[in-house]
Write the structure tokens for this entry.
Amino acid sequence: MRLTREWQRLAFDRQLVAQAHGWGLPVDFATLDDILLAGGWYRSAGERRRTGPSRVSADAVLHALLVAARDDELAARVVLQRLLPGLVTLACRWQRRCDGDVVSELLTAAWPVIRTYPYERRPLHLVANLLNDCEYHAFRRANRRLMQQVATAPHELDCPVEPPPPDARAELAEVISCSRQLSEDDRHLLALLASGRSMLEVADALAMSERTLRNHKARVMAHLRSAVALAGAA
């Protein structure tokens, strides 16, 4: 892939590394690859286990990168490299539904998303949020623009309308939103798990190990079962 070859050239360039030292990152680094690792990027799950947890959270590193990316294209390029595994996963998912070069569509959307990301309002779960924004701007927003609104004929406005059948997903969403046992992080975890991503991808998005993710998932599912039981008894 062209971006991967380009990154191999950029990562060890001394002038670029010196430029990166002006970003005020909360970690020490000797190459741009070191910044990627500090931002939660791994070539494999085995590398994640060998490296172990960082003393600085991946979100803290990415937050500093996004601040720098507003004015520095190199910082934006580092963030783009961090997002590449997730962008490839999104491309594979959308390739079955879209014609054309979905990778180019995602990369085109990713650059302005990175340069303008509102890190002040959305400082957590940065990888997941950035990928969701890229997906929205590349595919979902375009589909919304294609929707055509058709006016209802006047004579149909007085016709009785049958109430729609109950929507199980909507009812479950209401139970989740009303449950006091579920925090915002719990709801975000459920949304990621329901998006079709693998456990490794979700763990990567949340900057935690798969084992920790499974423990969180078990706790959240127990709370959710309790919320459903209380809703059924109401």
Summary: The radius of gyration is 21 Å. The CA atoms of residues 48 and 169 lie 35 Å apart. The chain is about 65% helix and 0% strand.
